[in-house]
Design a protein that fits this description.
Elements (H helix, E strand, L loop, with lengths): L15 H25 L5 H20 L8 H26 L3 H8 L2 H13 L5 H17 L10 H22 L8 H19 L7 H7 L2 H26 L4 H8 L2 H11 L6 H22 L40 H4 L7
Helix pairs in contact: 1-4, 1-10, 1-12, 2-8, 2-9, 2-10, 3-7, 3-8, 4-7, 4-12, 5-7, 6-13
């Protein structure tokens, strides 16, 4: 893969680092989400926290999406609701997981989605992964095994296992998003609103059976806790969504995906520096292997990227995102965003 040089410029003469910087900030924000969720959630308040988070985020997204919501077909709406149910499952597993493990472990284990997704895609398309990718996968799995042992070989915690299961379910979510024909040309903002609404419905139905009510949790939160909740709802969800959409239209999905892939690094740094996590020697070695494996895996699975951030294309092929003759990109509206764009699909569901 061609190095992504900081001095490269976009065809519009905008320095690429001006586009890359907000994307890296999203990765930092996502990395901080695990510690924020850990500080907010308890076993009894997980569902309430998630319901409050999405109740805050959904109306803002609905305002932004505007009339595009009314243009959704019944088929698109149904697909969005299904994706929202999968999204709720991912977030429930992740949040329960982070309650019972460290923020560092949570952020690193969930990064295995970047390995699981190309493997699942290879199975679905009946293609054989490259040797480099299989090597990266083995490196990542070895890293997880070491990370979960801390300072000695013990049974992985329930939180570690929940995060591993969350990575599997997130892979299912990413695969479903990328392969559902009903949403391939759907306006991304409108589809997100439907997904959020579906997730809210799941959380609301589960709330009476899940311990403390959302109203009691909201009333008990301090100003600091509300600030953390707003961080999860607005920064980790809405801000991240908009930056991804903005950046992928100005560079390339592959470049954005690689930058967002630094999320587990930030999760580990924030967990150690701000959360007081102490992974031990084995855990530190495992963290390094996971970071190396997922980085190698992304590069092995991604198309070649030029120094300008554009994926290499066969001679004569239309530029990425260029509208086919007589239509818009991918046959949809100019604002539509297919879930197959790696900038979104590589991460799948919004992090915690």
């Amino acid at each position: 893969m061609t190095p992504l040089t900081s001095g490269a410029t976009h065809p519009g003469n905008r320095p690429l680092w001006l586009i890359d910087l907000p994307v890296v900030l999203v990765a930092v924000v996502w990395g901080s989400s695990y510690l924020a969720a850990k500080e907010l959630a308890t076993t009894a308040t997980v569902i309430a926290l998630l319901l409050l988070r999405f109740v805050v985020a959904a109306p803002v997204m609905a305002v932004v999406a505007g009339r595009a919501i009314t243009r959704l077909s019944a088929r698109e709406t149904g697909a969005g609701v299904l994706l929202g149910m999968l999204l709720s499952g991912v977030l429930v597993l992740e949040t329960f997981g982070v309650v019972h493990t460290s923020a560092t472990n949570a952020g690193l284990i969930i990064s295995l989605t970047m390995i699981f997704t190309p493997l699942a895609e290879a199975v679905a398309t009946r293609t054989r992964p490259t040797g480099a990718f299989l090597g990266a996968a083995a490196l990542s799995v070895t890293g997880v095994a070491l990370l979960t042992q801390g300072s000695g070989f013990t049974t992985p915690s329930s939180g570690d296992l929940l995060m591993l299961l969350a990575a599997v379910v997130r892979t299912v979510y990413v695969m479903a998003t990328g392969r559902m024909k009903a949403v391939r040309s759907t306006d991304s903002g409108a589809l997100t609103v439907v997904q959020f609404t579906g997730a809210i419905a799941v959380f609301a139905l589960a709330s009476p059976f899940a311990g403390v009510s959302p109203l009691d949790v909201a009333a008990a939160y301090s100003l600091q806790q509300w600030a953390a909740l707003l961080h999860l709802a607005l920064m980790c969800t809405l801000f991240a969504f908009f930056v991804q959409m903005w950046a992928v239209r100005r560079t390339s999905p592959s470049r954005v995906s690689l930058l967002l892939g630094t999320e587990p690094l930030w999760a580990a740094v924030i967990g150690v520096l701000a959360g007081g996590d102490r992974p031990g020697l084995l855990g530190a070695a495992g963290a390094v292997l996971i970071l190396a494996g997922t980085t190698w895996g992304r590069q092995a699975a991604a198309p070649a990227v030029t120094a300008e951030g554009e994926p290499e294309r066969p001679e004569g092929a239309a530029p990425e995102g260029a509208a086919p003759e007589g239509g818009s990109p991918e046959g949809g509206s100019p604002e539509s965003t297919r879930a197959s764009q790696p900038a979104v699909a590589a991460q799948g569901a919004p992090p915690l």
